[in-house]
Amino acid sequence: MSDYIDSQGFRANVGIILMRDGGELFLGGRRDGRGWQFPQGGVRRNEKPEDALYRELHEEVGLVHSDVELVAGTSRWLRYRLPRQYLRRRGNPVCIGQKQRWFLLRMLGDDSRFNFEATAEPEFDSGRWVDYWAPVREVIYFKRAVYVHALQELGEQAFTAGPPPRPDWLNDELLRAPAGRRK
Predict the structure, then answer these.
(1) CA-CA distances (angstroms) from residue 48 to 11, 53, 106, 159?
(2) pLDDT tens for residues 25-49?
(3) For residues 86 and 151, what is the distance between their CA atoms, to the nearest angstrom?
């Protein structure tokens, strides 16, 4: 069963933000060595985003529904376009980016619950807990604006006083594509 790509070329996807008590967030270390990111994965045709959330949670980090509590979800799909060098032109339709529904989950157990070998083709080989806004700086540049939007919206739902204050380094310059990568 394949992931769903809409008529505009955006692949439907779920983004998963795991939070533990104290407000730290989980980042997975990509097995291919290309950085750190939140768990995420494709939504299959006719699959509900929440069903994809729990399937991907298990596939990416080995957790099951009972290991987490659903805290919040984004109200709409958040989109980003892939830079030219990341486009998969062989597909039909061509995937030009991702549209994502984001979910904030509270981790109920301890780190021993993680299993990065839950599937034959693991996405991550390690993980670490970081401050609330740190993932924005860690993720590849073209996902940063979506990370900011998701963290802001989900933080407004999860915390009575709203999300933690943004650090000084989180500015418009960080959200722009590096020189030479603007298309």
Answers:
(1) 14, 9, 20, 26
(2) 999 999 988 889 999 999 999 999 9
(3) 24
pLDDT band at 4 (very low <50, low <70, confident <90, very high): confident
Are 43 and 130 a contacting pair, CB within 8 Å? no
Tokens of 43: 């939504």
In what helix (H) or strand (E) does residue 105 lie, and over which residues does it extend? strand 97-107
Q: In the chain, what are the domains?
A: 10-175 (3.90.79.10)
CB atoms within 10 A of CB 161: 8
SS3 114: coil
Is the overall model pTM greater than 0.85, yes or no?
Answer: yes
End-to-end CA distance of the chain: 32
Residue 9, classified by CB atoms within 10 Å of its CB into exposed (0-12), middle (13-18) or buried (19+), is: middle
- pLDDT tens digits for range 132-160: 999 999 999 999 999 999 999 999 999 99
**AA identity, residue 99:** K
DSSP one-letter code for 58 = H
User: Tokens 């967030």 appear where?
Assistant: 25
47-84 exposure pattern, b = at least 16 Cβ within 10 A, e = fewer:
bebeebbbbbbebbbbbeeebbeeebbbeeebbbebee
